[in-house]
Design a protein that fits this description.
homodimer, about 425 residues, alpha+beta, BirA Bifunctional Protein, domain 2, Rossmann fold
Chain lengths: ~425, ~425
């Protein structure tokens, strides 16, 4: 058979695997989420900063969890032989920027950002390769006031999304306590300690208690499980343990938030949770999580903590720092599940339907006049039947329609029809 | 000599080469630029969309200029053996998205986006490896009304930045005319035509006329230069040439914009410019540029055009499309040069100075009450001398200061001091 001439294959309309296209309806939701984030952070006096997604790969080799650097980053060599990474998290970038100008910056620093972050993962529900994340951080304050502020800002974000106090709880812990039990009381080395923490972080809340027990005993032996379990489930041990000064500090943080909430007539849902640990190595004290109380979705929605050492990786002194990150995918899912997403705004206030080309210039002028008064105005230039043009406005959810034909163009007298009420008014 | 133990080297605080860190002061300018872009696009009824910076590399091999794909993209192989590119421009992504849902979307589509784009270039003033770009596009209208609308939106952006009509001019052309002269009248092949267009695009306005002449003659011979020169500099030839129906259309576009501007009391600075071509192959008709009239900076600030064929690369019919892109680096430079950047907003409305830890809880409550009324409030938790705390507010440009000591915490009576006027008021 004669070969057919090669035909140009059409390009695929699919996005790259694991990332999202944001059509206007999705973008509007994204914008709503970002707006709540921005408004809340700014109400606490936080300033927005930003940076490129590209960072020197070295930065992530220093202090992230191993798994992230070795298996989950997008790292490549550029045309100038530099090893470059698409940032998997914002905190190292932030620490770099603060360290770079620490002599010029006025502390305390309150900064926020909404970066996109990349992880090479197998895409599945709630896991994508690129997501956006609110990052809120306070630098230069060592005291519990900073810890309380950051947690109360996180709480405020939830409230500003319309969450009720019963919908979630805030869990706090000191990340150094678990490390101490494992290393000092159980004599585990650094590597094993890290692995045990990872298992606790990933599994403790996700699987039933007996499965977790089985897993821990299989992997690390009976002693480890029982010691941890004793510390966290035996009330006497807890009482003894929480006389530790770090728990005193946590209790003070909790008290300060409860006190603050009392005044605003909310009951802040906050509790000490000794099993709480987070996936990153850089936390040095407080860790906290906003935890979904829905029995069908027991999981952390987001979290953060204190990381006083991170800036010193870039040379110079430590700078006390506390902050959190909150992802767009998780919160969007949560808002959808709870029915908390608001209706999105129409793309324009007025839609001008034009009968024929002869009226185009008049339609443009009419639009310009309305825009000058602050309205958003779109013109339909298809010259289809007016009924079809009005349908087109309706499909877009645009509330007001103006029809322009030869008569209107001549007289200049225009009527505005509201598509919801059916009412007509002179413009 | 004994080897010294290896010391951990500090990480560099430099960002990746050729990209920018946005500290809050820079981010505020960026935000101002984005806000003007968004407001203007939305006033014409454009809806925001977005997509990932990651795209399948195939997309750019299809229709961009060669140089971009071969030498200037960030392209790499991911862990799943996919060839992936950091988008160098948004239009192919947009065409992909529109093509993917063309049956569901309601045309005409008015869409805008502010993506970041990547080019591997040698960094220099005005050239960075990552920049942001407003993209405005109108799909589904074949007529000059769409061309006029997009140009008048571009014009409006400039006006909303505070530009005066004398500061810039709008140059329009039909991109197919130059192609026709080169291929039909001069018999040049596709490749050479493309190269000549590139030289015209890059050099015509940047170097003196005699240098340009020398360059053209050296590279492509006397005939090419003289034919082009004849068409564009001999008034009789121009008159003859612009009887072409495409020029008729351009004249109509121009007339419609001039007419529109008359009504808004502006003199729209628009002219036909036959030498105008743009760096991309995909333009099929109208091309336009906003050109800086400053004699020391003769260059295009931004531009766009009509690209009716691009969507069909993804299969199916052509979809008429016209749009433009406007970069943040160029416009920021321009705004700075012209003194048009506004003062940026302070990070908070109130700064609360706290004498000692004992008043921290009261300070937090005061802040919460002010936030509940819509104010942005930051607290200084350093417990430094009050004078130093006030200086810190002043450095940040925060206008109002509240000092809280034991007396204020007890009485609940607070005074607000305005740092600009020196005035004090009860809260």
């Amino acid at each position: 058979m004669a070969e057919k001439p090669e035909k140009r294959k059409n390009l695929s309309t699919e996005p790259y695997k694991g990332v999202r296209d944001f059509y206007p309806a999705d973008m509007a939701i994204q914008k709503y989420i970002f707006d709540v984030w921005k408004k809340t952070a700014e109400s606490f006096g936080y300033e927005e900063y930003g940076a490129s997604v590209l960072e020197p790969a070295d930065m992530y080799k220093a202090k992230s969890g191993d798994e992230i650097v070795n298996e989950q980053t997008y790292t490549f060599i550029d045309r100038g032989e530099r090893e470059v990474t698409l940032r998997p998290e914002m905190t190292p970038t932030l620490a770099r920027m603060v360290a770079a100008k620490k002599r010029e910056l006025v502390f305390p620093l309150r900064w926020y950002s909404i970066p996109n972050l990349f992880r090479y993962e197998q895409p599945q529900r709630g896991r994508v390769r690129e997501h956006w994340q609110l990052n809120v951080d306070l630098f230069g304050v060592d005291d519990i006031e900073a810890d309380s502020e950051v947690i109360s800002l996180a709480y405020k974000v939830m409230k500003n999304f319309g969450a009720k106090d019963g919908d979630f709880e805030i869990r706090i812990n000191d990340s150094s306590i678990l490390v101490e039990i494992l290393s000092e009381k159980l004599g585990k080395g650094k590597e094993e300690t890290r692995n045990i923490l990872k298992i606790i972080d990933k599994k403790k809340n996700k699987i039933p208690a007996d499965e977790f027990k089985k897993l821990m005993i299989e992997k690390y032996g009976k002693e480890v499980f029982e010691k941890l379990d004793f510390y966290f489930n035996d009330q006497k041990a807890i009482d003894e343990f929480i006389s530790d000064k770090r728990f005193e500090k946590l209790k003070a943080i909790k008290a300060s938030l409860v006190e603050l909430a009392k005044d605003t007539k909310n009951t802040i849902p906050i509790k000490l949770y000794p099993y709480l640990t987070r996936g990153f190595d850089y936390y040095t004290g407080l860790v906290f999580e906003i935890y979904d109380t829905n029995p069908e979705n027991r999981r952390a929605l987001f979290g953060g903590g204190r990381y006083d050492d991170l800036c010193s990786l870039f040379g110079g002194d430590k700078i006390p720092a506390v902050g959190f990150g909150m992802g767009d995918v998780t919160i969007r899912d949560w808002l959808e599940t709870r029915g908390l997403l608001p209706k999105t705004k129409a793309p324009a206030d007025y839609y001008i339907c034009v009968m024929s080309e002869g009226e185009a210039a008049f339609a443009e002028k009419t639009a310009e006049n309305l825009r000058a008064k602050g309205s958003r105005v779109a013109i339909d230039f298809t010259y289809k039947k007016i009924g079809d043009q009005i349908k087109s406005a309706d499909k877009r959810g645009i509330p007001n329609v103006i029809v322009i034909g030869p008569e209107e163009a001549k007289s200049g007298k225009l009527k505005v029809k509201n598509l919801t009420s059916g009412e007509e008014k002179e413009l």
